[in-house]
Specification:
Blueprint (H helix, E strand, L loop, with lengths): L1 H19 L8 H17 L4 H19 L6 H14 L4 H22 L9 H87 L6 H28 L16 H10 L3 E6 L7 H21 L4 E8 L3 E8 L13 H13 L2 E6 L6 E8 L14 H43 L5 H6 L6 H5 L23 E6 L10 E7 L2 E8 L2
Parallel strand pairs: 1-2
Antiparallel strand pairs: 2-3, 3-5, 4-5, 6-7, 7-8
Length: 515
């Protein structure tokens, strides 16, 4: 419905030209029908192919000027379709190349259509038609397109702003959700590191009590029930950790207990574990790696208490200039372990080591040789490497603003250059027209009525000043044709003309026409 209404509005000047013009200047109904059909094609293409629609109206403009010498009938269609093309075209290059090619085509076609075989060149109104056809495409096509494109850029800027607001809202919700997940993960880490380690040591103590010699049967059974209760508590702890944890290892420097390696080893030995520590003293381990080393030792002792009761555990520390190595090796156990094999602690520890920039290895030492947990850690925490994310919305917003400013500036500059160019051309043409169409008063005074036209032509300028005066003039002699020449070369002075009328090869009238 909008396109039909647009077609009706753009077609009104064409219908008006067919109804209201004088008989000599009126557009014929075939011309009106062809113009309306062409405007309909442009409107139909305006949404899917805006540049094509713009060029169709540019061709209508050039043909109207070339055939009719009329720059008004299709002026509205060219201006409106150019503006609509600007609002619908994201790129500017096609809008420059298309109208430029149309203007070049008009510069070639219009002279061919307006050529007067009876003269040696173009008549003044022919040159004016050529000027209107060529400059009109640029002025009434490009400037409205730039205005429309500025509107396009403004809407793009608004869309970028709304997208930025929506993305910020999504990021706010994501940050809140991440904060909740980090809090849950912190709780899970603390429960695993503190309670898991303590429950393992308690289970180790009770297991040692259960196999102690000289213990009565009732006491041995009570010790077994206590060990099973502790093991069940460890299982429930594993389930809770699995629910709360989300794989976020947290800060690599996070140490929930603050226990040193010596304190960890003393607590394990007090629970009945055989532990030996050798290698670099803890104080010489670089601070960035020290917290992770403690976590590796804690996890190794906890696993040994769970899965290798009665085994010998060796902790080896080696701090070099670039990296620190920590190894917790448990020998083959005297009896099968009864701990809970959830695997959450090793996965969590591997992630912490990775975030620090190190490598963790956990597995059997060899057939029947126990279990080894080893880590290699750089002495300086490696920066976390993030995957490249999407381009920030702020950058899109800045680019949209820059494009909008550039389009507005281009519209102003093109308009100013076009106006200056048209003004300079019109001024130059007025000076050229006035200076090349002057009949000197002495030559005019020397002309005689009845003189041969060939003799008169020898003193006449190459061009006439105008075709018809716009003010009343004396009656033209019957059957004659008249030419009008300027009296002075000033294009801005009061217009005064000499009129020479010819009939049958003779000068039949000479008159001075003051304004």
């Amino acid at each position: 419905m909008k396109d039909v209404l647009l077609w009706a509005v753009l077609g009104l000047p064409v219908i008006w030209a067919g109804l209201t013009r004088t008989l000599a200047d009126a557009y014929t109904w075939p011309e009106v029908s062809a113009g309306l059909a062409a405007i309909g094609v442009a409107v139909a293409l305006a949404r899917s192919r805006p540049l094509t629609a713009m060029l169709v109206t540019a061709a209508l403009w050039a043909l109207s000027v070339a055939v009719r010498g009329d720059p008004t009938v299709f002026f509205l269609a060219l201006t409106v379709m150019s503006c609509l093309a600007g609002t619908r075209m994201p790129r500017a290059r096609p809008a420059l190349t298309g109208p430029t090619a149309a203007a070049v085509a008009a510069a070639v076609v219009v002279p061919l259509v307006r050529w007067d075989p009876a003269s040696e060149g173009f008549l003044p109104w022919d040159l004016g038609a050529w000027f209107f056809a060529v400059t009109g495409i640029g002025l009434f096509g490009l400037v409205p397109w730039l205005a429309g494109h500025a509107r396009y850029q403004g809407r793009a800027l608004a869309r970028a702003g709304w997208e930025r607001a929506e993305r910020l809202e999504r990021e706010r919700r994501m940050l809140a959700e991440q904060a909740r997940m980090r809090e849950r993960a912190a709780i899970a880490r603390e429960m695993h590191d503190l309670l898991g380690h303590d429950l393992s040591l308690v289970a180790l103590r009770i297991g040692a009590l259960e196999v102690a010699p000289g213990l009565s049967g009732d006491h041995r059974e009570a010790a077994g029930e206590a060990r099973r209760a502790v093991t069940g508590a460890a299982e429930r702890l594993r389930d809770i950790v699995a629910v709360l944890g989300d794989g976020d290892a947290g800060s690599v420097d996070d140490d929930p207990t603050g226990e040193s390696i010596g304190e960890l080893v003393r607590r394990a030995a007090a629970a009945g574990m055989s532990v030996m520590v050798h290698g670099t003293p803890e104080e010489r381990i670089p601070t960035p790696a020290r917290a992770v080393v403690r976590q590796v030792v804690r996890e190794g002792l906890t696993n040994a208490a769970k899965h290798s009761p009665g085994a010998e555990v060796r902790v080896r520390l080696a701090a070099g200039p670039d990296e620190t190595q920590v190894t917790v090796a448990a020998s083959a156990p005297d009896r099968p372990g009864r701990g809970v094999a959830g695997g959450y602690g090793l996965r969590e520890l591997a992630e912490r080591v990775r975030l620090h920039g190190g490598v963790l290895h956990a597995g059997p030492s060899g057939p029947g040789e126990g279990f080894t947990l080893a880590a290699r850690l750089p002495n300086v925490t490696a920066p976390a490497t993030d995957l490249p994310g999407p381009r920030p919305v702020a950058l899109d917003l800045a680019l949209a603003r820059r494009r909008a400013r550039r389009t507005r500036l281009a519209a102003v500059l093109v308009t100013a250059v076009a106006v200056a160019g048209v003004s300079a051309f019109v001024l130059g043409f007025m000076v050229y027209d006035a200076t090349t169409s002057v009949l000197p008063p002495a030559e005019f005074a020397g002309l005689r009525v009845g003189q041969a036209e060939s003799e008169v032509a020898a003193v006449l300028p190459a061009r006439t000043r105008i075709d018809d005066p716009s003010w009343p003039e004396p009656p033209i002699p019957p059957g004659s044709r008249c030419r009008y020449y300027g009296v002075h070369p000033d294009p801005f002075g009061e217009p005064r003309l000499y009129r020479l009328c010819f009939a049958e090869g003779r000068l039949v009238g000479k008159d001075f026409l003051p304004r």
